[in-house]
Amino acid sequence: MPTQHTMGSCCLSGAIATGTTTGTEREIAGLPTYVAEPSDKSKAKTIIFLPDAFGWKLNNIRLLADKYAEAGFTAYVPDVHNGDSLSPSLLTSVEPTLPAKEQMSFLAKTLATLRAGASLGPWLLRHREAVARPVIEAYITNVRTIPGTEKVGVLGFCWGGRYAILAAQKPFSGQNGKGVDAAYTAHPSLCAIPGDFEEVSVPLSVALGEKDSYLGESDVNKIREIMRKKLEGEQGVKCDGEVVVYKDQVHGFALRGDQENEKDKKALDDAAQQGIDWFKKFLA
Questions:
Q1: What gap in Å lies between CA 88 and CA 236, rounded to an integer?
Q2: At 35, which CATH number?
Q3: Are the C-beta atoms of residues 120 and 53 closer than 8 Å to each other?
Q4: pLDDT digits (tens, 9 = 90+) for 215-260
Q5: Per-residue pLDDT tens digits for 174-223
Q6: Alpha carbon separation from 54 to 102, 119, 134, 189, 197 (Å, rounded)
Q7: What was the pLDDT predicted at 232?
């Protein structure tokens, strides 16, 4: 049976990254966008970042975009929530670290889930697929028309992670056959498994936490099997794919991991490098 995952309290947890960003804010393809550029200003390899529920202004995603720019990509972080991202003040919930999660009582977890539902429910309704997907697809379409743009990748986290998967499916209408050239998703939420992954038609890299509350071992195995079949062309469309599971990491680790914790910091850095290596290979 297909599994449809939702969002919950662990989507409202984690750490806010410290550090000074180096990019600029501009309007790109009709949306306010954080822009991080490589030293040569080349747009040949462009990556669109699809944020989690905390949106384009969260320091974490901007610092990550800066890192991609240092690696030679032009990075765009658009306001796909139209000014309606959740407040970072909600980053106080269930999974800031694995030890904290494991020490919580059943009652504490239940209360955290209820608080998350009160915040997430109305927000998810406002940013349901029927609303969000056309905004994201129009942005991708318009970015491809920017002079100097050659290859386009898409990268998404949590809420944005599913839309990175959807963008990796068969090119959407109105693009004259041009979608994205490669995609990377980290701890996606709201996914339909196996359906969302079965339709993927471009190289897709997936980063998951071993202790993710939403994607358990069974789901991970299903995703691995789908990617294997695509690599071997068993489902009609042959494309590259990989699934990397990070030991002891919880949902949100690749964007909101604790930089003060050595193990979490390493996973955060390794997940960033996973995406950089993937796009270097498939946006070349």
A1: 42
A2: 3.40.50.1820
A3: yes
A4: 888 999 999 999 999 988 877 778 999 999 999 998 889 998 888 8
A5: 445 478 999 999 999 999 999 999 999 999 999 999 988 788 889 999 99
A6: 25, 12, 20, 14, 25
A7: 87
What are the Cα distances from residue 86, in Å, to 53, 55, 89, 214, 235?
Answer: 6, 7, 8, 20, 38
Per the structure block, which two tokens stand in for 20? 């000074």
Identify the DSSP state of 166: H
Q: Where are the alpha helices (DSSP H) in the chain?
A: 59-70, 98-103, 106-126, 129-143, 159-167, 195-198, 217-231, 253-256, 262-282
Give how many domains the chain has, as a whole number: 1
In the predicted structure, residue 116 carries a pLDDT above the cut 80: no
Residue 40, number of CB atoms within 10 A of its CB: 9
Task: Name which of 249, 5, 254, 13 is nearest 115 in CA terms.
Answer: 13
pLDDT at 215: 83
CA distances from 212 to 52, 91, 110, 121, 136 (A): 15, 17, 17, 20, 26
Please say whether the beta carbons of 105 and 260 come within 8 A: no
Give the pair of three-digit tokens for residue 220.
Answer: 């991970």
Give the C-alpha separation, 115 to 103, whole Å: 19
Q: Is the pLDDT of residue 266 over 70?
A: yes
Side chain identity at 125, as an amino acid letter? L
pLDDT of residue 214: 80
* Residue 72: band (very low, low, confident or very high) from pLDDT cuts 50, 70, 90: very high
Containing domain of residue 225, as a range?
3-282
Separation between Cα atoms, residue 105 and residue 265, nearest integer Å: 26
What pLDDT is stored for residue 94 in this prediction? Answer: 35
Q: Torsion-angle region of residue 24: left (phi > 0), alpha (psi -120 to 50) or beta? A: beta
